[in-house]
Design goal:
Structural class: alpha+beta
Helix content: 10-25%
Distance between the termini: 36 Å
Number of domains: 1
Number of strands: 5
CATH architecture: 3-Layer(aba) Sandwich
Order of helices and strands: EEEEEH
CATH topology: Protein Transport Mog1p, Chain A
Oligomer: single chain
Length: 85
């Protein structure tokens, strides 16, 4: 696990980076944990390129709920589409 710190007392830890398939587009899923002002959060980013645009979907929850919500985050991100593409 890679960890970064900043002057604003935020700590980021890279948990995973994986290929991810949305219904219509290939993507990457990047998962971080972060501590902000003493609170631990879980963030899942889904990144895809559609045409010339890069789209980033971000989902956030408390660290304690991360396992419960990751399946829901994945299910939601899979349905992402841009009309006309």
């Amino acid at each position: 696990m890679t960890t970064w710190s900043s002057k604003s007392s935020q700590r980021f830890s890279l948990v995973s980076q994986d290929d991810f398939e949305m219904i219509l587009y290939p993507a990457q899923r990047v998962i971080f944990t972060q501590e902000i002002m003493g609170k631990k959060i879980f963030q899942a980013f889904y990144i895809t390129k559609i045409g010339r645009d890069i789209w980033v979907l971000t989902y956030t929850t408390g660290i304690a709920e991360s396992e419960t919500f990751l399946e829901e985050f994945d299910a939601s991100a899979r349905t992402f589409f841009v009309p006309g593409n």
